[in-house]
Amino acid sequence: MLNRFFFLSTILAPSVLALQSYQSRIPNGDNVVSPSGEPWPGVGHHRSSGGGERNAFGDDFAAAGHEWTIELCQMDSDCDGFTNGQELGDPDCVWMEGEIPQFDVGITHPGIADTERTSGSTDAISDSCSEFDFAELPPDYSNTSFVMPNFLVPSERTTYAKFAFHMEDLGLDQDAYAVRVEPLLENSQVVHHMILYHCDEEPTGFIDEPSTEGRMPCRDMVMSWAVGGKGLCLPAQVGIELLVAEPWFVMEVHYDNPQGLTGIYDNSGLKITSIPQSDSLVADYQPAGWLWAGGLPLGMNIPPGEEAYEIMVECGYPSIPQSGVTVFAYALHAHTLGRKVWTEVHRPMGIDSQGTSNVQECPEECSTRLFGQCELCFAQQGCCGDFDDASKCVPTGQCCDLCKECDGCQGCYPQTDTCNPNGFISNLFDTPDAEYESLLDLGCDTRYDFDLQETRNLAEYQTIYPTDKLVTHCVYDSTERSTVTKGGDATEDEMCIGFFLYYPVQPNMKCLKRVEQDVGTGEKVCQMPGVEVYNDTSMCADGERLDGAGVSSGVSFSDMDAWLQIHILCMMLSMGILIPVGVLIPLAFRLTLFKRNDAWFRYHRILQTIGLLLLLTGVCAAFQGSSATSFSETHHKLGLTIFILALSQPINAVLRPHKPENGESPSLKRRAWEVLHKGVGYSTVVLAWVNIFLGIDLLEEWYSASDDLVSALTFTQSVFMGVVFLGGIVGITMALFASKKQSNEATIQEGEAVAPNKTTSDV
């Protein structure tokens, strides 16, 4: 009996020692999704479930010895502008197996390029701090931390906590320029974003301790960070002003706690690097600020069940000077339904990229009406001049402060110290008849992710003029909602805003207006200057990776993954020939070739043991190679069934009833056991043969196996089956002859035994 249990433990041990999934060897390996949002457990393969031809990341992962190395982390396997580390939540390449990744949200696929996401939508654009050097700062620069003081995070899904700071309490006693911000994250699993605001006056309610009550009293944003983002560094000689005369700041932290975690005390915040304005090295610095272009939550209603519901809002900024302002970074914001967000620059027809007119210049003096589009406003006795009546014009008049209701007055020069009559008319193009053209995208993200927001540098800085309009679009997917989604601050509400960092700072640069709803189909291709589109083959040295295929025509056996090779060989040997022959011996040769001393049983057990060991090895190789636990094809499901049936046989053998001896009749249990044991064995062989051919078909479909390989495997299995069938026919025939011979011999012996008795009686 002991040898039987030893035999059973030998069979079952490999299943316990099955190799660990590759998912654990890369950061967030169990959290990868495709560009369309489909879970992709088989990260290194073209099939989401794993197995099959490897994708570009799978090739690089194999070349790295199936280990997460710094070199693999820094590679861009799919050539979409993102390193493998950025896509898998380890942008700094510091993760080690068994550790928690730096980020566990916003995870994308390192082996499948997201063509939309690379069209200028993320920081394939340069890292704003990549060239920042503290050594180039004045020696009296300072680092100031604005942190939430030991705030107990509520278990609710959405919490906005606010806390006020005074410059003196932070050691800031003189005017300064903020030039860099870094996040200080203590509980990244619940901190969604942080915004530091400057206040015009002392805030109330947030000074002594953090508070979740009341609305934000401050509107001037200084610096921000959102989940997935890094630090932000401003361009050279540009900074955000921190003024002693306006010393109050409020930091707002959005806590997103979908798991309802409790007992979390948070001290997250922002570290600001600043330079005193008194330093001679900052004399030429330009103050920067934030431009807002977005929609008011009031009146925003997104109906349920919409896959691509688009809204838009249009903003103008007449306070921008004639020379324009320079935009150098952007941050786009929506909530969980947001799928695409972009802000277009619309410029009047006939105005070039420098903000000057290509149509005509306005005359220096009033005269008869020579230009149909040029209707200047001149101050004359308290009203604006009438171009239709030259006598009412003031040839050397000054620019109007405001257009007044008089005939022919449709526009005014912006008010300046001098009239500057050859300038263009700032308000002329605000008339309903004005024609605008979409010039470019100031910010664009066509694969927007609520969990991957950050301020991003523009590849090419853009100048915005007072005649420009910024049009922000947001596209939402509400198919999972059953009710209307309103606009609001909560995570389950929605927003639509574009934030833009620019210089020099100007007043009245925040525009929040009522949105226009259901304005388009949601289709968008980003048009951001300086950002190459994905289909430019210069982005990748390996051109085969750009089409996402990576599958050559006719893959040979030697080109396949080693685990797949092991799986094929083990399954062909075990279920193709060894186990079937092991079943054939007691069926066909028990009474003939292997009759003496029950040799058939020894050969049967040896073949079944080797076959089962190979079967277990093949199954382990399949799991290891696919990195998947699901079964999506008939081959997988049938293979699992065969695996269970095959493993049940040694268990069945250990539990077999007593074998009859010395002419003893078999018991009912023994007969039932024999029927079950033989039935399972025969069924397993038949199902295994069917599954081998299904597997060969799958090799051709999934792995693009060459015709030669498919033919070779099909021929080999056909030979195996032929050998078993032929052996069965021969064995059964031999058994029949042996049985007939034995019957004849028994008859002769019986006759010989009767004959002497008859002779004796005659005598």
From TrEMBL:
Residues 1-18 form the signal peptide. The keyword Metal-binding does not apply. SUPFAM superfamilies: PHM/PNGase F (SSF49742). It comes from the Eukaryota. It is found in: Membrane. GO terms for cellular component: membrane. One of its GO terms (molecular function) is dopamine beta-monooxygenase activity. Residues 528-735 form the Cytochrome b561 domain. Keywords: Disulfide bond, Electron transport, Glycoprotein, Membrane, Signal, Transmembrane, Transmembrane helix, Transport. The chain crosses the membrane at residues 562-585, 606-626, 638-655, 675-699, 719-738. The keyword Hydrolase does not apply. InterPro entries: Cu2_ascorb_mOase-like_C, Cu2_ascorb_mOase_N, Cu2_ascorb_mOase_N_sf, Cu2_monoox_C, Cyt_b561/ferric_Rdtase_TM, DBH-like, PHM/PNGase_F_dom_sf, S-S_Temptin. This is Cytochrome b561 domain-containing protein. It comes from Entomoneis paludosa.
